[in-house]
Amino acid sequence: MGLETVVDDIKEEARARADEILEEAEQDADAQLAEAREEAEKTRQEAREEAEKEAEELREQELSSAKLESRKMESRERRELLSELRADAAEELAELEDGRSELTEKLLDAGIEELDVEEGVVYSAEGDEDLVRDLLEDRSGFEFGGTTDALGGVIVEASDGDVRVNNSFDSVLETVLNDSLKEVSEHLFGDGEEQE
Length: 196
Hints:
It contains 5 helices and 4 strands. By secondary structure, it is α+β, with helices and mostly antiparallel strands. Strands 2-1-3-4 form a 4-stranded mixed beta sheet. Helix 1 packs antiparallel against helix 4 (169-179). The chain starts with a helix and ends in a 7-residue tail after the last helix.
C-alpha cells in the first residue's frame, strides 16, 4: 500500500465524512425549517383566532351599543308621543263646552263630599268663575275664593285651609293618564311597557 493509496483512502474517507456532515446539516436545516414553518403557522393561526375573537367582541360591543341607543330613541319617542297625547287631551278639556257645566258640578259635589266639612272655599278656572258662582248658590257654607290657573273644574278647600281637594281638570287628567298609562301604552305601542 503506497502513500498514494493511503492519501486516496484518507481523501475518500474525508469526502464520505464531509458528505455525511453535509447530509446531517441538510437534514438539520430541513428539520429547523419545518419547525420554523410549523411555528409560523401556529403563530399565524393564534393571531387569526385572536383577531377573530377581538372582532367578535367589538361586534358584540357595537351591537350592544346600537341596541341601547335604539331603546333610548324608542323611549324618547314614546315619551314625546305620550306628552303630545297629554297636551292634546289638555287642549280638548280647556275647550270643552258640551257637558262642561255638568262635569264641573260633579267635580264640585265630589270635592265637597270628599272634604267632608260644613264650610269651605272653592276656586275655579278663570273662564268658569260665573258657572262655579252659580253652582255655589245651592251649596250653603261654601263660597267662591277666586280663580286659579287650571283648565277647568274646581279646587275645594276647608275654611281653615288645612285640607284641600284638587278636582281641577288638570288633576283629573293626570290621574286618568297615570292610571291608564299601561293601557294607553299597549294601545299606542302594542306592548305592556309602562312609560314615565
